Amino acid sequence: MSDSKSAVVMDADRIARTLTRIAHEIVERNKGVDGLALVGIRTRGVHIARRLARILKQISGDDVPTGALDITLYRDDLMRHPVGPQPVIRRTEIPFSIDNKKILLVDDVLYTGRTTRAALDALIDFGRPQLIQLIVLVDRGHRELPIKADYVGKNLPTNPDESVQVRLQETDGNDEVVLQQEAIV
Amino acid sequence: MSPQATVHDIDQRPAVTSLRSKDLLGIFELTPDEITLILDTADAMKEIASRPIKKVPALRGKTVVNLFFEPSTRTRTSFEIAEKRLSADTLNIAIATSSVVKGETLADTALNLEAMHPDMIVLRHSSSGACHLLSRICRSAIINAGDGMHEHPTQALLDAFTIRERKRQLKGLKVAIIGDLLHSRVLRSNILLLTRMGAEVWVCGPPTLMPADIRRFGVTATSSIEAAVTGADVIMLLRIQLERMEGAYFPSLREYFNVFGMTEARMKLATPDVMIMHPGPMNRGVEIASEVADGPYSVILDQVANGVAVRMAVLYLLAGGAEHEEAA
Fold it and tell me: Which of A112, A164, B127, B265 is 20 to 30 A from B51 in CA distance terms?
């Protein structure tokens, strides 16, 4: 870590303002929060989804149901390596029917699009939503699948050898987005 | 209650993230951290059963052979459902239809199956150690679905999962296991698991069905059912295995019930929120009274439901292969 360069690209205030802006965009685009439900992708997407639910409640006065999705079992690289430890799976908790709902899928970073693809497959196993919109805090480019976010916190041009780390109070003790130049992988 | 209330924080990393062995031969080979990993993974798997589409693509393209040399309905069905929910291709081989009746040895049967490149073999066999034998000669992952009087690890794991679901943790619980202690592979796996996870285990049965060195496993042995169930958090009944009994171990089934049967009166000695468990198949009126088996404290059908989740967890964790092995 010592010879890697890193820069804070979003601080706590910036993240808070960004989420407030996204919440307003959600209300504007969907003409309110009626029929909306948030589904966060574990781990950090869930915390971002919860924060958005709180802001949406302040704006509209209504609760937006919030769920958590673990996409591990849908990953396209799950059994690609002939031998190796399996990724740890977490519980998916969607305590409401997604049928005919407008689902707001939430992730921290959008990169290749493969996680989003897995999440879309997983969601469809829960029912048939009216529509799915994608919310990401950071879009760092380098898509490998035809996927585009509907709400973007920050577009961050990156090189493939850089890494983007979203740190949140709930998991990491502080709020910031860091762009890191990887010295050795 | 707000909708968010049911979404839990599960961000902490587990102590281990994979199993060390390519096989699941018994609880004996597992560390407490590995047991916790399997139970946590099963916790995630359980939710899949409540979905409209009860299937995930995780084991797509993997082939699992269910090789059963002993009759089994519950365990075989449970494994098969678990495999199908993970999208594996499954193949069931039962003794009556196999070449074993033509004189083929277990090793030859296994090597012939191996030639067709399955990824995993789930084995049930009447000989203790059959899984260890296959583990040495097969490249596939071997999962023990019960070998003789040795072990039945997935049963102990699903029992532990069911207890943990209600009681939060296994540590410090008093678990009374009552019945045929001599012939039970479920007992052996359960004792290993429960003592390893810090539970206090009492075993109870007729002296004729009590293995001589059972205290070596760190359990309290008694032939008084009252002593065993008093203050118990969990009561686990074991089936009287008439098919494995060649001698006269007790005078009659009726006398067994009178002395060791789980009745409502005896249940009152346990803690107020006691759990009554039975691995099945039950002999009603022998080891357990019908009122107890069907009563509010019975979690016998929860055990069956949890069996699928636990087996999905084992299949998933073993499908990636062992950590220490090099890539093929």
Answer: A112
